[in-house]
Amino acid sequence: MLFFSYFKELVGKEVTVELKNDLAIRGTLHSVDQYLNIKLENTCVVDQDKYPHMLSVRNCFIRGSVVRYVLLPQDGVDIDILHDATRREARGG
Amino acid sequence: MVLGLYTFADIAADGAPRLEAADGEELVRVDRAAELALGPRALKAPGTLFLTTRRVIWVSDGGEGYAVDFVAVSLHAVSRDPEAYPYPCIYTQIETEASSGEESDVSDSETNGELELSKVTEMRIIPSDPGQLDELFEAFCNCAELNPDPSAESDEEPGWVHGDEGYEDMTDGSDTEFSDVNPIGQTGEQDITHAVIKLQINDQRFEDAEIDEESHINGN
C-alpha cells in the first residue's frame, strides 16, 4: 500500500513512467489505483524517434504490471518521510 | 494468463461472441462499424468491437475474429494526431510472449509480408464515430481495472494487511482511486516505537571505557 499512498501524493506532478519494454512516457500524473495502474495527461514520449506512434497521444492509461520505474520530480520527494514510511512498511508496522 | 492477440472464432449465429459466462465474463460494450489495425497495417474493414470484462474482441463483418485479454494490454490511449495515424483511434500496446521476456523490435510483427498475430505489439481501434473515442477510452480503463495480474492479487494476502488503517474500502470497485489510506508522514493513532528493533551489540569495543583514576583529563 505504500506506493499507492505515495503516488496519490504525487497526483498533479510531472513524472516519467518507464515501461518494461523500455518505452518512457513523461506526463502529469492524473490518477493511480491500488494496482498502480497509472493515468497520465499531457504526455510526451521521451525517446520520440524510437516510438513515433506514441507522438500523437496526449492522455494514456498504463497498466501497473508493465511499469518498470516511475521517475519522480526532485521537489516531489521528501526523503525523510519516505525513508520512515518504507522502514515502517518493511517491518509490517 | 494469455498474452498477445489470438484468433477468435466462437461466434454465435447473430454475430455476437460466445463468452466464458461460467467464468463470469460479461459483455460491457459493443461498437458497431469499428475498424481494427494490427501492427503497421490496417486490417479488414469494418467490423464490430466487443469489450468484455476480460478481453477485447473484434469480429469483422466477414466473420473473422481477433481477441486480446486485458491482462495483455500494456497501455491504451486516444490518438488524434493525423500525422501519427490518419484516423482518430484508440491506440494500444500489447504484451506478447516474446516481448515479455526479452527486448524486441516493435515492428517485426510481419514475416515475408504475413502478419504474425502472436508478435503484434500495437493495435488501433478506429470507431466510425470519433466522438465516441473518449467513452471508449474510459471503457478500456474500466475493463483494465477489472483485470489485475493474478500475482498482484496474491499480494493482498493477510501477511501485508494493516488491520485498522481502513483498507476495507479497497475492494469497493466503484472508487478505486481514492481510499482512506493514510498519506505518507501521518501515522494517525499508531505508535511506531514498538516497531523499532533494539540493537544488540556484544562487542567489547562498544563497552564503556574503564575510568582510570590516574588519567583524568584534568587530573594531575
From TrEMBL, chain A:
It is found in: Nucleus. GO terms for biological process: mRNA splicing, via spliceosome. GO terms for molecular function: RNA binding. Residues 2-76 form the Sm domain. The keyword Nucleus applies. Its main location: nucleus. GO terms for cellular component: catalytic step 2 spliceosome; Lsm1-7-Pat1 complex; P-body; precatalytic spliceosome; U4/U6 x U5 tri-snRNP complex; U6 snRNP. Keywords: mRNA processing, mRNA splicing, Nucleus, Ribonucleoprotein, RNA-binding, Spliceosome. InterPro entries: LSM_dom_sf (IPR010920), Sm (IPR047575), Sm_dom_euk/arc (IPR001163), U6_snRNA_Lsm2 (IPR016654). Pfam families: LSM. Belongs to the snRNP Sm proteins family. Component of LSM protein complexes, which are involved in RNA processing. This is Sm-like protein LSM2.
From TrEMBL, chain B:
Gene3D superfamilies: Pleckstrin-homology domain (PH domain)/Phosphotyrosine-binding domain (PTB) (2.30.29.30). GO terms for biological process: cell volume homeostasis; chloride transport; mRNA cis splicing, via spliceosome; spliceosomal snRNP assembly. Keywords: Cytoplasm, Nucleus. It is found in: Cytoplasm; Nucleus. InterPro entries: ICln, ICln/Lot5/Saf5, PH-like_dom_sf. GO terms for cellular component: cytosol; methylosome; pICln-Sm protein complex; plasma membrane; spliceosomal complex. Its main location: cytoplasm. It comes from the Eukaryota. Pfam families: Voldacs. Belongs to the pICln (TC 1.A.47) family. This is Chloride conductance regulatory protein ICln. It comes from Miscanthus lutarioriparius.
